Amino acid sequence: MKCGIFLALIGSRACLAVVRDIYAASYAGLVFRLRLDDNKDGSYSLEEVGSSLDCGYNPAWLALEKGTSTLLCANEAYTIANVGSLASFSKESLSILDNVTTDYGPAQAAFFATNRLGLAHYAGGAVSVYDTSDPSNLVELQSFHYFMDKPGPNATLQDKPYPHGIVADPTGKFVVVLDRGADALRTYSVGWDDRLVELGPHFTEPGNGPRHGVFVKGTSKTFFYMLGELTNSLHGFEALYREDGSLGFRQFYNNSAYQTGFGDAAGGAHLLLSTRNDDRSAYAGAPSDTLASYRVDLDTGALALIGLSASGGRWPRSFAVSADGKLVAVADQYSVPGRLVVLARDPETGVIGDQTPLATWTTNVTLPDGQSISHILWDDDDDEPSLAGLREDSLLLRGTPALGRFS
Ligand SMILES: *[C@@H]1O[C@H](CO)[C@@H](O)[C@H](O)[C@H]1NC(C)=O
Ligand SMILES: *[C@@H]1O[C@H](CO)[C@@H](O)[C@H](O)[C@H]1NC(C)=O
Ligand SMILES: *[C@@H]1O[C@H](CO)[C@@H](O)[C@H](O)[C@H]1NC(C)=O
Ligand SMILES: *[C@@H]1O[C@H](CO)[C@@H](O)[C@H](O)[C@H]1NC(C)=O
After folding, report:
1. For the chain, what are the domain ranges?
2. Residues enclosing ligand 3, CB less than 6 A?
3. Which of 138, 153, 247, 256 could anchor a disulfide with 406, C-beta 3.0 to 4.6 Å?
4. Measuring from atom 9 of ligand 1, which residue has the nearest CA?
């Protein structure tokens, strides 16, 4: 809701209270629509206004297409072998519009063009593209399948390709898929009819296990940051837009994802990453996992750690910053009951106030192993979202290494 001065002067109700929605997917089978009310007295309330069981067994990732008011849900279905699906919902009512079988195990999705949703299929070793122009008739346009001749250095976790992350670059002309099994950044250009054209992989060091990545548009260069799951490492690359139409990466930064030395917080953009299962923080008297905030120097891409905040629970698998940069919603996947906290954030410095949540919402529906919320996103902005939902101020890397530390 846009609130001009004119509206504010005539006292439009909409300008007194800001209402924003948060969508949450739970691995326990549910998709929720939550409403955050910014009450006039400065307090917040977070309430469930809808839910659906229709996405299937294990909703993993959500994407919003504002043009058609549609919520897309990828069902990773990892508790059942060899299943995957994509469902579309009216974002208001959460009534289901379509539900299609996909390659196995879609773990992440990203719009890279209008009506073009890319899916990274973790279990299926594939990448697919859906045409969402008619939300009641989702159509698979493309499917790329990957194979490896032999396992990677980590034979258990790299026995085959595991595409885990998918991101569009800031120009909207390229898509990168992070393949944990193959140690590859798979690159594509966006070609005719907004379909993907495979350009080939950029390999990271063997055994790295790329999982999540994000582009940051700097003053003259574009940077790409990436988390290696198997080495618990954070990497910075300059994106190379080559004359032959390919996309390359030049690494300039390589460090642990578990840093502790703080740097200068002034200026720049911010990057947020979560470290799961680290118990480095404290929240409400209990150990908590951590969100690390970095400042990005927009000229050089250099990173400076500026804050370590409690995530509010166990395994912050997903987090999202509001459009104005002032709120961070964090979903702790293994908190019981499943917990979503909304924390205050200073959009200038990136610092998060982690000890007094503005609002908390819990769900007691969990899988037998205790897992619940897998992904969250805000619907708080009337503007067309920029590609891949990147926002100028708050650039995110979601989730990290679950399995121990990098030393
Ligand atoms: C959508 O498909 C998935 C996978 O086949 C299934 O589990 C789920 O029940 C379906 N949803 C509906 C509403 O039929
Ligand atoms: C694979 O990676 C995980 C996570 O870093 C680690 O715990 C495990 O020991 C590794 N296995 C091998 C065979 O390297
Ligand atoms: C990153 O640094 C670690 C620790 O120094 C090293 O083992 C690893 O090979 C480096 N990786 C890259 C891609 O430079
Ligand atoms: C879970 O929460 C719902 C709604 O708050 C409540 O009705 C239900 O009794 C709870 N179930 C358990 C097992 O606590």
Report:
1. 20-396
2. 205, 251, 254
3. 256
4. 56
Residue 119 pairs in a beta bridge with: 109, 128
Q: Is the CB of 240 under 6 A from ligand 2?
A: no
Token pair 């819990």 in the structure block, residue: 362
pLDDT tens digits, residue range 345-403? 888 888 898 888 999 999 999 999 888 999 999 998 644 433 333 333 334 454 443 33
Distance from CA of residue 288 to its chain's centroid? 20
Instruction: Please tell me the distance from the alpha carbon of residue 371 to that of residue 274, in angstroms, as a whole number.
Output: 17
For the structural domain made of 20-396, what CATH number should be given?
2.130.10.10
Asked if 235 contacts 211 with a C-beta cutoff of 8 angstroms, the reply is no
Of 173, 184, 183, 222, give the one whose Cα is nearest residue 395.
Answer: 222
Ligand found nearest the CA of 251: 3
Q: What is the pTM of this model?
A: 0.90
Distance from C-alpha of 150 to C-alpha of 147, rounded to nearest angstrom? 9
